[in-house]
Amino acid sequence: MGDRVLNTASTGYTSRQLVFLLNGVECDLRLKDCGTKRTLQLKLTDDIIKRLNGRFIVKNGTVKEFIPSEHKDGDVIQLRTPIYCISPKICHTCYGRLIERHKTPYVGVLAAQIIGERGTQLIMRSFHSSAIKLLKRDIIQDIVDNDPLVDKEKVLKYLHQKENALFSNKECKIIITMSDYDLDDSLEINEEETSVWVKSLISRVEFEDVIFNMILDYPVDLKIKDIVYEGKERIILNYGPDDDILEVPLEKNEIKEQVLYIKRLVGGKEIYKDTPHLLLKLYKVYGPIAGDMDFVHLEILVSQSVRDKDDPSRSARLSKNPDDPEMVNIKRNVFNSGFLSGLAFENVGEAIRTGLITKRKMETSVIEKIMTGTLVVEKKDGY
User: Fold this and answer.
1) Number of domains in the chain
2) Sign of torsion, CA 33 39 40 42?
3) Cβ 181 vs Cβ 201: under 8 Å
């Protein structure tokens, strides 16, 4: 019961963060088509097809509405998406007919509410089930899924799994950068220095002839054979052939996985090959609990997660080079989106500092309009 309460707090705070991070994404109620030439190449599954009602695709150079009955599992489409919309406010064609259903321009707040709601619903279902889910993790597959630059065959040459433990085939070192663990994450070295416990693992593993990332979205115990501290910046764990590197618990906690993933995403710590790959990874995390959630809400979140390299305060879709985006800690953009929004978020000092030194004009966010009572302008003399 205590764990469920803690999970409720985590998902509630995650929902709050998402509202602040996405409230700047709006739909232009008067703009039918921004005219972008870029589309999202998407391989369909039966589940994805059900989430694209009212969307638009490009086929043979022509924009047309997506008709689910005309497509099947395995088809590849070119989807118009908010991720590539070139209008500051999303156009109707990139967002789809969902705007007609909800009749609100505040599509970012809507996406945040719906994504956050899915985690809360999962918790409420858990109150009615006392069964403990046990799962033998496929650790190797999880490593591959979280680093698109490596393939499974290559990883299997260097690592192998027995039960719920991971072993090295050759000498290697695991490098943990402490800046990846902020106050919202957990890392603990036990007093005897025999293990390092992390709530989720963000690390790099180095062999003599290959380097790749090791990211796991669940708690692990890293075994200490030889540990080197590089000041307060890094921890290096050294292993020999056939050493056990880590163990993971058998209990599966879907709620924590989703919360941890969102933390990595908004913190700019997610590793991905390209923007479509990032979107599919997000779908993989939320798909099992998504219910009837429209795909576009995940696209809105991804559109805010990839930023302009020259000006991280802007989404990559509005940059001169949208094909080369940067992932940054988008929580910092809350402070650039408005003074009152920053004060209400999580770091009053940062909000005041940004408000004092910024030189560019900040457009009033929907949250600030609500705070100041200016969301709806009072009519005067019949106007």
Assistant:
1) 2
2) positive
3) no
